[in-house]
Amino acid sequence: MKKAIFLCLAMFLIVSFIPQADAAATMSERLKGKILLQVEENGEAWYVNPADNYRHFLGRPADAFQIMRELGLGINEANYDKFDGYAPSYLAGKILLRVEANGEAYYVNPLDLKMNYLGRPSDAFRVMRELGLGITNGNLDKVKIHANSKRPENAGNSLNGMINSVDDCSASTVSKQSLYDEDTITVTMKVENEIIGDNGDGKCNYRYNISDVAVTLSDAQRQVALDLGETDDTIDQNAIDLQSAYEVFFHGEDTYIRIAKTDLKDVLNRWKNDGYWTLDNDMDTEIYNTWLDGWSMLGGTATVNGFSVGVVSVEGVDGTAVFELNGAPYTMEKDETVTADGREFMYLGTQSTTCTINGEALEGADCNASSPNDVKYQYRVL
Q1: CB 296 within 8 A of CB 376
Q2: Which class for 8: exposed (0-12), middle (13-18), buried (19 or more C-beta within 10 A)?
Q3: Alpha carbons 125 and 206: distance in angstroms, whole number
Q4: pTM score, whole prediction
Q5: pLDDT digits (tens, 9 = 90+) for 22-62
Q6: Range 289-304 burial, b when 16+ CB lie within 10 A, else e
Q7: What DSSP string runs through 125-181?
């Protein structure tokens, strides 16, 4: 009797498993060669290699570019010329490499067999965003991950989930690769978001960190710049300069904000949709526990995060300075730190060492307090 029950149970398990296995095999076959985007997560991109129907995580633009080239199939120039931009159906979904032409790579879109050029990491990133097919987590799970594939960071924790947790400010952390397109450049960056908890006044304590910034130009973007009168040399130099500027601006340091829940949902939705954002003036926010850079001209006043900073006087370049911090005077040396109204303030010295006095361009020590409208000073407020 026990033996009969065991055999019936075994047959039930086998029969129950077969449709699931068939469904997984059917899903992999149906999706082979396609680029898949996890719509229920952060839009993570996967490529299903038609050679074995396993999926590979594409990750950052440079990762996607490298992975696509590694999985490529070599073709000679005779076949490339014969294809004339559209590959035969048996190459649908494959990545083709022109082995006789510097290994130029092309992705064959399974829908129309068009060969999409993968010249730079930004091209690979754009192709996977434009040609990607949205897929639910349930269906994606039916396609096996290749053993050598990377995995997304913070898998299972998504911006959608974080947006849902804003109402009670429950703790969560999500990292996302974000894309920001301008007319002539593409900027990619890694954005780490964290909700720390409830501030107790209807706001969430929120932290973000932007790092791994990369500036790239596609052929189309380069052509836009050329049409505007730029040369190849100036375009390349501008890209280098922009890369440096973005690296300085997004320097990988944490920024902490107390932010209204409706505004935080807006911010997270912008990151989710690959939108670069700044804190809008109409947002109910307050930056805290974060060093901010700023400057005031001699005799001028600026407000940083609700903290008033005025430069009263200075003795030459990087000399002793007198500040008004929320209306109270403080005499400080370069790199000195004081506490005013519960805020820490550091005088970092002269930001600019060039000025104009009586129409004459001067530098260094000649730029002193006699040029009240030309010398800037730098400070930070905690």
Answers
A1: yes
A2: exposed
A3: 29
A4: 0.47
A5: 555 688 899 999 999 887 776 788 899 999 999 998 877 77
A6: eeeeebbbbbeeeeeb
A7: HHHHHHH-EEE-HHHHTTSPBPTT----TTTT--HHHHHHTGGGT--EEEEEEEEEE
